[in-house]
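Researcher: Here's the sequence for the chain we discussed earlier.
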Amino acid sequence: MTRIPAKVSQDTREKALDVAERLVQTRGYNGFSYADVAAEVGVTKATLHYHFAGKRELGTALIDRYSARFVGRMSHIDDARGDARQKLLAFAGIYGDVLREGRMCLCGMLAADFETLPESMQAELLRFFDETHAWLTKVVAEGVEGGDLRIAGAPEEVAQAILGGLEGAMLVARPYRDVARFEAAARQLLASLLAS
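Model: Thanks. This is the structure I predict for it:
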């Protein structure tokens, strides 16, 4: 049996994740097959099975990678040391950037397919939303304490409204292929929280 060089193997794995991410963000999890990924990467399904036992394992790895990048973006926002207003605007910018690429939030797309996802993917998806909600709750609480934000409700509830509002604004802007629609909705959502 011929051994695949580690670098080639890692490149194939990353290419497969890149292709699968794009397919989920544009078609949804149920809109592509394992064979579609193999074909786009230019490998056999057997080669893809070397990296991921099946579509479930590919999907779980995809959420893990996306979550790590998303958490990294939130950490970067924290490191910039802006006030809560700046942090929330930067957070909304993450969603705008994805939409500008003609894609949707990976986890938002997966949430639409939630009932049909394997349990391992459901668990990872919930972890992503829980981590994002926790970060938003922290930012909102800091903003209230620092006088940057004025809210009508608990920070946890406001964080949920922000997360749901941004995901929904992406969904509504998508068929129009109009990032400006998303940006206007995001501005209005966040403006309702900013202390004057």
